[in-house]
Amino acid sequence: MINFATDMVEVSLLGNNIRLESLINKISKTYFVKRYRDALSVSTPKGQVFVFDYGVVLFWGLSESKKAQLTEVISEHVIKANPQKDSDSFHFKLSESGNLALVDDCIYLSDHTTMTLLAVSHGLAQSAKLGRFEVLAERTIKDNAYLSTTLASTGKIPLSRKKLSMLRGALFSTKSDILLHFNLLDTPEFFWEYPEEEHKYLAVSKYLDLKPRVELLTMKLATINELHEMLAAEQNHKHSSFLEWIIIILIAVEIVLFFVH
């Protein structure tokens, strides 16, 4: 039975990725640590911590001082840390019925075992990462919305070929960053080994609307892809126009030289 200092679980997105192997070497000197595929379980005297390799950490029942201490240690192994901390928190308590449920941001746990906490943590961690993708995609679409409006009203995008290339690069980078991690929004491989725990994860997934949010993100990615293709077409048009002008100038020069001689 795990003893908890508080009845809160905090979900923090620290960065793009966390190097679990190097973290294990560091943290196992102080705490009991176990690896579960893409997640690390860290047992403390007054709580449980789960570290996911895609940048998310969950602190179950830890005091503020202990969370700050462990966050500092984990942050040393984060790749591309977030400039600002993205976090969310939920209350948790044992369910009287013995069934896992989520009501009004309170998690009613069937038990306090590591497997139950980890199954729930997978859903909470995915939601945090998905939230980051949603913000990134939404911001990208909003920042580039003027492109389609300008093209519709003027028939062209008043940007240089270099600026168009930079915008295409930024759109491609955003899309690639999301697609690179898109597979982690599927049911985690952890449940291949522990299928009896999957129903707990699915309960969390349903409460947090993971499936419809992933579908909406897919639509946003399609919009970003359309923007990218539109810029590519405009860039090709500018390049073709540039070549046409070169040909016209060369023909004009050739005509002038012909009459001069």
Break the fold down into its secondary structure elements and pairings.
Layout: E1 8-18, H1 20-27, E2 32-36, E3 39-44, E4 47-52, E5 56-60, H2 64-75, E6 78-94, E7 101-103, E8 106-109, H3 114-143, H4 145-154, H5 161-181, H6 190-193, H7 198-207, H8 210-260
Parallel strand pairs: 6-8
Antiparallel strand pairs: 1-5, 1-6, 2-3, 3-4, 4-5, 7-8
Short structural summary:
The protein has 261 residues and is of the alpha+beta class.
How would you characterize the overall build of this protein?
The chain has 261 residues and is of the alpha+beta class. It contains 8 helices and 8 strands. The protein folds into 2 domains: 8-127, Alpha-D-phosphohexomutase, C-terminal domain (TATA-Binding Protein), CATH 3.30.310; 131-260. It has an 8-stranded mixed β-sheet with strand order 2-3-4-5-1-6-8-7, sandwiched between helices. α3 runs parallel beside α7. It is elongated and about 100 Å long.
Kindly give the count of domains: 2
Query: What's the total count of β strands?
Result: 8
Large-scale geometry: elongated
Instruction: List the helices and strands in order.
Output: EHEEEEHEEEHHHHHH
Q: State the share of residues found in helices, binned by percent.
A: 55-70%
What profile does the largest beta sheet have?
Answer: 8 strands, mixed
Radius of gyration: 26 Å
Strand order of the largest sheet: 2-3-4-5-1-6-8-7
List the uncertain runs.
Answer: none
**Averaged pLDDT:** 87
> Count the helices. How many?
8
Strand content: 15-25%
Ends distance: 100 Å
Structural class of the secondary elements? Answer: alpha+beta
